Amino acid sequence: MTSAPTDWSLAGKLRRRAWAAISLISVFMVAVVGLHYGTDVPELRHRSLHMLGEKFARDAQLAYRRNDWNIINKHHRIFREHADNYTWAVLDAAGRVIAASEETPPAEEIWIASGPFPDVWTSETNTGGWIGGRSFTVDGFTGHIVIEIREDTAGLLPMLIVGEILVHVVLPIAPFALLLFIGLEAALRMTIEPLKRYSDAVSGVEPGNRLQPLDLNLTPAEVSGIVRKLNDTIDKLNSATEREKTFIAQAAHSLRTPLAALKARLELDGGNAPAEVLKAEVDALIRFANQLLMSANAEKLVVNPDALADLSDVAISVVARLTPSALVSGIDLGVEGADASVPVTGNPDALAQALSCLVENALQSTPRGGTVLVRVSSAPPRLTVTDTGTGFVSAASAARTLPDSQFGQEVRAGLGLRIARQIANAHKANLHLGDGTSAGAAVSLSFPEPQQPHA
């Protein structure tokens, strides 16, 4: 059991792939920036201490004015939650500690930068941490801040790397990504628009209306081949529809006459109409209905290229089947040239139908005492039906190939000839109509030479 096909959007797939590519590029850039900053640990320590010292200096000015150094711990969470790893002290110009955290930086580390204190400084400690500080001035007082980081348990370095990535990657990419999104959407809409027009054109087809070919002028090169194939299919469908309409019109016209004649005979003769005459007319209608079915099947006939048919066998079987009808009509029906095998590529049953139509037409147009002959030729393979009837009045005594547009317009080009021609086309054969050498008509089916099998 096959599952129902699921619809998918070409625009959606292109959009997802474009954003996947942009995401991969962004991740690569983030990785490059993170690797660059992550490998320069001394610089990161210096910058993290510098940034922490700037914030500390502002709060130290406020704490000095209010004489409340608890403000430092209140405003800086790391000194409260990570007191063992982040310590601080504030010194005056003489180097005396005027305020400090519970855990204070070691005195030997503080005095590394003493005599005098620089405005901004950082240094590694003997225990593997890092220490730094800066000077601040408030109300004529000059103080010096010392901050020690023993272990970065608060994640100052990772947060600094994230901040650098945000500033140097995310923020520059954000407006570019927005513009890219707008441009991508516009480009996708313009690219998919022809396909949407094609979909609307096909979905707007109503039963009975002629299909219009799709416009190739706005077709992208990537789908132009599909559109051309679709246009070819549309042309074939239109041609098939026209042939169907023509066939129905011809069939209706052909049925109207015998039905009108049968109705008139019943109205005139009433119950005294000869049964034999009515039976003959009904039989003619039955034959015509069978020919309609044969024509419908011939339209869909596909010949297997490996199938072989013998024209001699086809001619002998058709003549044998129609000989009783010919005897009743007083017509001499025979076959000539069927002694040797004449193979062609084709369907034997379909070829028998085609030949039967030609022979039946010849029998109908040949008067009592006339002759109908089926001749088999081998160079090239050919079946020819000749009769001694009235011949083709409009053929101007010249053999020719009958085109589609003239079927039904010739005096004797009826449904039987249409069926024969359809079967001939399926076999890549040619149907020729002409007058006989002395009288009557000559209809031939010429076949291509059969392909020899490869050794």
Strand content: 15-25%
CA-to-CA gap between the ends? 43 Å
Number of domains: 3
Number of H- or I-type helical stretches:
11
Helix content: 40-55%
Which consecutive residue ranges, at least 5 long each, have pLDDT under 50? 394-413
CATH C-level of the largest domain: Alpha Beta
Major pleated sheet: 6 strands, mixed
Strand order of the largest sheet: 7-9-10-13-12-11
CATH fold name of the largest domain, please? Heat Shock Protein 90
The 3D shape can be described as rod-shaped
The CATH architecture term of the largest domain is 2-Layer Sandwich
Short descriptors:
single chain, 455 residues, Heat Shock Protein 90, 3 domains, six-stranded mixed beta sheet, 11 helices, 13 strands, 16% strand
Question: How would you explain this protein's 3D organization?
Answer:
Helix content is 53%, strand content 16%. The protein contains 11 helices and 13 strands. The chain folds into 3 domains: 10-38 and 160-196, no CATH class; 41-154, Beta-Lactamase (2-Layer Sandwich), CATH 3.30.450; 302-446, 2-Layer Sandwich (Heat Shock Protein 90), CATH 3.30.565.10. The strands form 3 sheets. Strands 7-9-10-13-12-11 form a 6-stranded mixed sheet. Strands 2-1-5-4-3 form a 5-stranded antiparallel sheet, covered by helices on one side. Mean pLDDT is 79; it is low at 394-413.
